[in-house]
Design goal:
The chain is α/β, with parallel strands linked by helices. Helices cover about 35% and strands about 20% of the residues. It has 15 helices and 15 strands. The strands form two sheets. An eight-stranded mixed beta sheet has the order 9-8-7-10-11-14-13-12, with helices on both faces. The chain has a seven-stranded parallel beta sheet with strand order 3-2-1-4-5-6-15, sandwiched between helices.
């Protein structure tokens, strides 16, 4: 590649160039074979372009699988990616739901590899989790391994019987800054959606009482930024009571999920896995606003709720989807149930995103170059590799020495 395409619509590529150089420096430490394909599941974000460029330079063929939450409204972004010499974007026939079928996932891979090609799966959200056992069997000699970026994606792989290594970077400490950045964006854009669509503000206590389900990195970040908006009457719930012990001393009320859903009409779902049980929906009060940090598929099990008749979609637009319960109560899913920052440009201006992208990429390159370090099944990236990424990132962006 002679000239990377680092920006799509921004006027300046200064920030993107800096991120590209950081990721490129890490990638250059590892050689790649000539016949090598990367399948990468990723959001259609402006901030992803430096990472996409580096991956495209590593592989003979980079197969970009756009996450549905940001793909629909970013067709021109996908056209930009297709302009990269070694990059192709998969068709809408291979979305998250379709890839649950092992034969569909196999067909996708066969479209893009030769009989003697090696390939990596860089997953984001468990897109290949339902098909992975089949893929490990049929591509036993070609599949190098899998890397998974997110905690909710890792959860989907947990019960798989893997004969290939899966390296997770979801729980690394260097991912925490990006989680807090995402929390800030989610709070900010939830406020923006409420103002735009309902004429409401997050910090208007007369109309909204705020609750947060999930006390992990993202949930704690959401609470931090809610408090920054002078919202003091916050309830937090988690299925693990140990995670709630930190909150009373900081002025946040702890709650059961049942109480929170009953009392709060603005709910942030931050679990990644079934924040609100179906049984609660039959008794939930009217006019609940819900924002998720992942997607409604994961946070609410939305397809299952629709199939079971617990929720029925009745309308909406790009920013809000309205559903009704069996009892006719209205739920409004901000951003259509996707992470509340997905309708807006995210990822630019804060180099924390390059930390987890570097970890995700490094895990794949080590699977390729140092297979003896890994065993079959799920394992994390090593502490020493995480420390090395952190050190290089601090040196590159903040003159650390």
């Amino acid at each position: 590649m002679t000239q990377p395409i680092l920006t799509h619509t921004y006027y300046s590529d200064f920030f993107a160039t800096k991120g590209y150089a950081f990721l490129k420096h890490i990638a250059e430490q590892y050689p790649t074979p000539k016949k090598f394909t990367i399948f990468s599941v990723m959001h259609c974000y402006e901030g992803s372009l430096p990472y996409i460029n580096v991956l495209a330079e590593l592989a003979e063929n980079l197969v970009f699988i756009p996450k549905s939450a940001t793909a629909t409204g970013n067709q021109s972004f996908k056209t930009t990616i297709e302009a990269l010499p070694t990059c192709s974007v998969v068709s809408e026939a291979y979305n998250k739901q379709q890839l649950r079928d092992p034969l569909v996932a196999e067909a996708l891979i066969r479209e893009h590899i030769d009989a003697d090609s090696q390939f990596l799966l860089l997953d984001h959200g468990g897109y290949f989790s339902h098909a992975i056992e089949h893929l490990c069997d049929v591509f036993r000699e070609q599949l190098i391994g899998v890397t998974e970026l997110t905690a909710n994606g890792l959860y989907k792989y947990l019960n798989s019987n893997l004969n290939k290594p899966l390296v997770t970077v979801s729980h690394l400490s260097i991912k925490a800054p990006a989680d807090y950045e995402a929390s800030e964006c989610i709070v900010h854009y939830s406020d923006q959606i409420l103002r735009e669509e309902f004429g409401l503000k997050l910090n208007n206590d007369n109309f909204l009482k705020v609750g947060v389900i999930g006390a992990g990195n993202l949930g704690r970040g959401v609470i931090q930024y809610l408090k920054g908006k002078a919202i003091s009457n916050i309830l937090v719930a988690d299925i693990d009571p140990r995670k709630l012990t930190q909150f009373p001393r900081n002025g946040v009320q702890v709650s059961s999920i049942e109480r929170l859903v009953s009392e709060c009409n603005m709910i942030f779902c931050c679990t990644g896995n079934g924040a609100i049980p179906e049984a609660l929906l039959d008794s939930i009060p009217d006019n609940r606003f819900i924002a998720t940090v992942t997607s409604a598929d994961d946070e609410l099990k939305l397809p299952q709720l629709i199939t079971n008749g617990a929720l029925t979609e009745v309308g909406g637009n790009r920013l809000v989807r309205e559903y009704q319960t069996r009892n006719g109560r209205s739920l409004y899913l901000l951003a259509g149930g996707e992470s509340a920052n997905t309708p807006f440009k995210t990822g630019m201006g804060d180099p924390t995103l390059y930390l987890f992208e570097a970890a995700h990429m490094l895990a794949g390159l080590q699977l390729l170059n140092q297979p003896e370090r890994f065993k079959s099944g799920i394992q994390p990236l090593s502490d020493s590799d995480e420390r090395a990424i952190a050190k290089q990132w601090l040196q590159h962006f903040y003159s650390y020495c």
